[in-house]
Design a protein that fits this description.
The structure is a single chain. With 303 residues, the protein is α/β, with parallel strands linked by helices. It has 2 domains: 178 residues, FAD/NAD(P)-binding domain (3-Layer(bba) Sandwich); 105 residues, FAD/NAD(P)-binding domain. The protein is built from 6 helices and 17 strands. Strands 1, 2, 3, 4, 5, 6 and 17 form a 7-stranded mixed beta sheet that branches. Strands 8-15-9-10-11 form a 5-stranded parallel beta sheet, covered by helices on one side. The chain has a 3-stranded antiparallel beta sheet with strand order 12-13-14, with no helix packed on it. α5 links the parallel β10 and β11. The longest helix has 19 residues. The chain is elongated, with a radius of gyration of 21 Å. Bound molecules: NADP nicotinamide-adenine-dinucleotide phosphate. NADP nicotinamide-adenine-dinucleotide phosphate binds next to α4.
Amino acid sequence: MTFDVIIIGGGPAGLAAAIYAGRAKLGGIILEKMSPGGQVLITDFVENYPGFVEGISGFELVEKFTEHAKRFGITVENGEVSSIEPVGAEFNLNLTDGRTITSKTVIITTGATHRKLGVKGEQELTGRGVSYCATCDGPFFKDQVVAVVGGGDSAVQEAIFLTKFAKKVYLIHRRDQLRAIKILQERAFSNDKIEFIWNSTVEEIKGKDQVEAIKIVNKLTGETSCLNVDGVFIFIGIEPTTHFVKGLVDMDQRGFIKTDEWMRTSVKGIYAAGDCRKKPLLQIVTAVAEGATAAFAVEHDLA
Ligand code: NAP
């Protein structure tokens, strides 16, 4: 059996693509390696998605997206793609469980994962005080002291979220200005539980069985210090999940897939949308718009 379209990844871009593909009566599925939702699933609160004036939890928003996608007949199936092989005008998608699925077109909406710091102790203490998900692990740090690394929207938003549990949150940023949007900055600056450590990087995470301390270097003075913390939350940006199409479609140096305005990649029949795509604004609202555009392009190109 050959599908019209296979959407790889069930985050906002993939679910929006499914709504549009389903309404266009294309035969297709979403392949998702875990649960639908992508990074939004582990986002505590979304307050910039239009229509939800008071905001909505990431979990609830994703539930609504999934329900909406299912309404138009595109089902979510479990599976992780390890490679895509062009065969004539079609594509064989090889899955990690050994299956091969064939489709006329493919929309890649695999999103991104958290970038690692790459310092001593990070890998060893992951799950033992080192975390990349405040929503998942924040409640374990009730009345404890944690550090957040990074200065973007994720770091600042999650630092604010962590103050619900932790008694103190250090926000460690490598510059003296945050990258995060102004409204988040204002909230963080007015939160008594957050202390900023500027112009500094974490060089090592220390601890025997659990995180006990971090070694920090001040980039301006070169001074090294040690800070006792119970947890370290790392939010220093994202890496696109595009390894399975490396060498097949054009990407930038960091692995973000290049597309045209129709979301077409360099390979005819393969499209990309959402956080795995090279673009200036990574938001739920842009991801869904790109998913819709990609499905529209598939419908147009197949016709
Ligand atoms: P980001 O915007 O790329 O910010 C990464 C932060 O980490 C920057 O402040 C960067 O410092 C710092 N950093 C990078 N590498 C580092 C290293 N090796 N050591 C120390 N610090 C390092 O990433 P993000 O915050 O994860 O956000 C990703 C995307 O999702 C963004 O487009 C963001 O707008 C979006 N997002 C939006 C929301 C929202 O709308 N509420 C929430 C979360 C995420 P510099 O500033 O010096 O570069």
